[in-house]
Amino acid sequence: MHALHVVLASDGSEGALRAAGWLKANFSPSDVRVTVVTVHHAPIDVGSPTFAPEPAYAEQMEDAAINEARRAVSRTEEALADFRPDCHVIGGMPMAEILIQFATDHRADVIVTGRRARGGLGLGSISRALAHNAPVPIWVIP
Which CATH class is domain 7-122? Predict the structure, then answer.
């Protein structure tokens, strides 16, 4: 029997770290192969070509997004140190589609994510998009 391949979608948030903790509490490193994926996107869209950002500003925003994504991966990797996860930082939008494509390309058995919905018991936009579109099971950890 092969180890379950888990893609853990992480933005470094409390929800993502809870999902990492849930994996640690429910699996041993020999049970699963964990791949941590963080998707970044620099928020430089301003809605009009007339007000497009200067190239230097756009580059600064992209660098900031990449650095934040690397910090997110690092926090999650630390939380799962015993599992020695593979870690990836990927740029693009929409984030759920990028995660689904990654999971498909890397033959993941399941995608795990934390819940980040603002209040209530609902799913956040990424978790909802994953649940509706992913070809593999999605485990959303509260």
Answer: alpha beta
